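Subject: for your reference before the review

Hello V.,

The reviewers asked for a structural picture of the protein, and I figured it would be easier to keep everything in one thread rather than splitting it across files. Below is the amino acid sequence we used in the manuscript, unchanged from the supplementary table.
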Amino acid sequence: MSLIEIFNLWKTFQMGQEEVHALRGLNLAIEQGEYVAIMGPSGSGKSTLMNIIGCLDTPTRGSYKLNAQFVADLSEDELARIRNKEIGFVFQTFNLLPRSTALHNVELPLIYNGTPKNTRREKAVEALTIVGLADRMSHKPNELSGGQRQRVAIARALVNDPAIILADEPTGNLDSTTTKDIMKLLTDLNLCGNTLIVVTHESDIARYADRTINLFDGNVTETDEK
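And here is what came back from the structure prediction:
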């Protein structure tokens, strides 16, 4: 049984008088522990698909099963728990609180789920150590380089020990050297057992994955495996 199972998925947006189909009957399965790249040009449906996989959006029709559960059957509280505990998000723009330290930014998911303060700090320190920022915990985002900020974002994604890490263009704002460092870090996390899904339009980034799912006009055109 696959960790992620998607059947005949459609997502339609109403743009004035016109309907725009971001996803068109898409079928997809992702196994526990896989490293998958979702690739395609702008407008291919990559971000829409990632938002649905991450339980940030719902399909217009079709079904999505996560860990053998139909996501459509879950309550808002259950979806919030999945977003907080089961899925770690890494975004191109980092999405860090500018006035908070790296440590506090990483603690945020634990604050939201009511983890006690001492445990929060311990887990956040551990996550920052894993990403190589043990000596930058008290720094705020404007005191960190772009690569260090993305490492903080990855630590925040990791702090709840999620089953899935979703990374949307995780190196889009980084130089080539820092990009290699971040992709090595993500690859190492996958080797430790995390299911990793990277959304990208860059073939150099997709090459790190074990399997590349190519999207065009809201559907899978081909799947490439190493």
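For the response letter, the relevant points are probably these. The radius of gyration is 18 Å. The chain has a mean pLDDT of 93.

Happy to draft the paragraph if you're swamped.

O.
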